[in-house]
Amino acid sequence: MTTHDDPIRRDALPSHPARHTDAPASAPPSDRQVRVLRDRQVRALHTDTTITVYQAYRPGLGVPAARDGRFPAAWKRDRMTWIKPSFLWMMYRCGWAAKPDQECVLAIEIDRAGFDWALQNACLSHYDRTVHPDHDTWKQRLRTSPARIQWDPERDLHLRPLPHRSLQLGLAGEASRRYADEWTVSIRDVTPLAREIHALVTRGDTEAATRLLPAERPYPAPEGTPGLTG
Predict the structure, then answer these.
(1) What's the pLDDT tens digit per position in 87-146?
(2) How many alpha carbons fall within 13 Å on the CB side of residue 14?
(3) What is the dihedral of CA 55, 43, 113, 5, to 10 degrees?
(4) Which position among 108, 119, 228, 229 has the lowest Cβ density within 10 Å, counted as fewest Cβ atoms?
(5) Nearest to 165 by CA among 155, 175, 177, 179
(6) In terms of DSSP bridges, do strands 147-155 and 161-171 run parallel, antiparallel, or are they unpaired?
(7) How far apart are CA 90 and CA 72, in angstroms?
(8) What percent of the chain has pLDDT over 70?
(9) Which residue, 170, 156, 183, is CA-closest to 8?
């Protein structure tokens, strides 16, 4: 039974070899690498102090979390959990709240300082030679980092992939515990909203569906966020 929303893919943009193997570490990024970075952006519903992320759970866990505004004791704080600032990527992941054990979609408002801390202490979930000096260094960083980052194709209302990439943030250890017990400001059950938007899309009324989407806008991720700087 899935209680923590693991990603269904680990195929963030493939790494690209440098044009010259003897290029110095300070060599500027290639045009291709610059394009890759520009294709990635954190977009989210956020205020001056909070950012909203999404997860999907079985009702037995999601309903009490939304009711009490905090994660219950049954929420395993020692496991990695993946949070998504993109509402439509969450819909892609949970199939509009129709997949087993993902029938309850939560909007979790968390403290921006905690979110930024996780980004600054994260490691890419895949090896990228344009970021890591070697594979062993990446593996060591992955073992010790409290957070992991994946950049996956953003989705449209029909859940088709878009050209730009959306953030998934995996939290483990200290980050997972702080997320559940320190950073969380509020938890809302947005399953009815997900189903209403899906019904509009199914009927072909994408204009009305678009109006109901959360107002996600570019989020100023801190300098050093893996995958946003190269």
Answers:
(1) 999 999 999 999 999 999 999 999 999 999 999 999 998 877 777 767 787 888 788 899
(2) 2
(3) 20
(4) 229
(5) 155
(6) antiparallel
(7) 21
(8) 81
(9) 170
